[in-house]
Amino acid sequence: MRTTDAMTDRYRLSPARLAVVLLLLVGLWSMPLQAELAVARGSGSGSTAGPAGATSDRAEWTYTLKAGESFSGIAGELLKPSASIHRLASYNRIDSPSAIGTGDQIRIPFAWLKQRPQPARVRGVSGQARVRSAGNGAIRPLTEGRRIQAGDTIVTHDGMVTVELADRSTIRINPGSSVVFNRLTRYGRAGMTDTRIRLKHGGVSNRIQPMIEEGARFEIETPSAVAAVRGTAFALQADSDGSHLQVTEGRVAFGPPGNSRDIPAGYGASVDPGGSGNMKLMRLPPAPTTNSLPDTINSLPAELTWQATGARQYQVDILDQDTGQPVRSEQTSDTAVGLDGLANGRYRAQVSSLSNDGISGMPTDVAFQVDLAARAATLLEPAAGATLDSNRPRFSWRYQGDSEKARVEIARNNSFTDLAASSDWSRQESATPGKSLKPGEYHWRVVTEAGGNSVATSDTRMLTINGTLDPVKVISANYIDRQVRIFWERNQDASGYLLQLSEDPSFEDVLKEATVDDTTAALRLIPGRRYFVRLRAVSESPIVGRWGPGRELYVE
């Protein structure tokens, strides 16, 4: 008994020790439940994926049934053929699937979700770019609106391309780049995307939507490194010196395959060619401070300025706010850039300092809108009611607005529904019509355009064209002894032709002048002397003819 009592005393716990043991047991009992709940929360849970988007074997997504939906219907819609409804019911420990209704949650492993290709779409193209189809290998010019399928390759020459992914993330491909879209996948109605891209050479700038779903993935591979994100803004380049990254928002897992590091916003990193593992980190140049710019610009040219940061050069990109497509991209050593030639619309200017190695630093974003209004031009010449002999008169006007272009419209009626001629659009303040005007009365005006979509129309003036007959050209000359017979073109509006003969090509001293009704005439010339002949059409109306080119004649 004494031994038993001693052993009992040895293992008897004091109240304090007993409390510690109970806490440990409670903790051990609760850990599996907490882990399971974290996974089962779906899009609202913390991610178990690493920076590269790799998920654990237990990664799953939670779907909440809506009104009118059933367990079997959702399972049939979301599951791969290899994952049966019965298997999903067993996974969720559901004995009676028909009892599951509105508001109930279903846990679905990501590996069981149905996947489908989700093409990207080209939002903008500037310059020259081509796409190589994965389907048949055909290479075609890249155009806005083109759908990019998995396996397609975009090659830019002097152009820039903006591509929008299924989740509205955008990729801007720089000139001189080659990008392969290896994978473009969406997990059924789950909405999660799996995007994997290979940057063979060149550069890309990316704005990736936040990936709250555990199975979502965005990854860019270069010949020497991999960049993986879960929602951020970053730029990546691949060249003969390796791979280079600049992170401006969020974090990017970057490095040789299997050896990545988290690079936060404000930093850049470079990996040597071939993925040797050597990584160089650097702090990006700070964002410049821009001076005030109106939210809405009503007059161009305008100017965007910023305070000097000590950088030798600055990168300035003007982007279309809606598409993300670059409108202008330039480098300058100045602290200002002119804003001119922009159409009406919403823009975002990005200004960043460049390091001595040419690496772009943190950008400053400036949003602004261009809203130009065209104003009616003031007409100068011809005067109202003018009568002109020329059938292609010159018109002139004066602009009243900024950054405008205009064209002349000439019509046979004052409603301008019967347009006789017009000029090309030009920023000049004068123009001639694109074709000759027949004799008669006309109405003319100047149409002004600003910003690409704002139009104004000037007052209308009357004009009378007496016109001129087309110049007459000699077709051929036949020599018979001392006589020469010449033939010329017929003018349908002519009542006859005036012929002049001279010994000098300027026709200052005319030897013979005669009116001829036909389109041929015989001339007797002195041998050994050179002559020149020309013709002009004449008409019974006030229309004046123009002399045709002189034709040289010679009789031996």
TrEMBL record:
Gene3D superfamilies: 2.60.120.1440, Immunoglobulins (2.60.40.10), LysM domain (3.10.350.10). SUPFAM superfamilies: Fibronectin type III. InterPro entries: FecR (IPR006860), FN3_sf (IPR036116), Ig-like_fold (IPR013783), LysM (IPR018392), LysM_dom_sf (IPR036779). Residues 61-108 form the LysM domain. It comes from the Bacteria. Pfam families: FecR. PANTHER family: LIPL45-RELATED LIPOPROTEIN-RELATED (PTHR38731). This is LysM domain-containing protein.
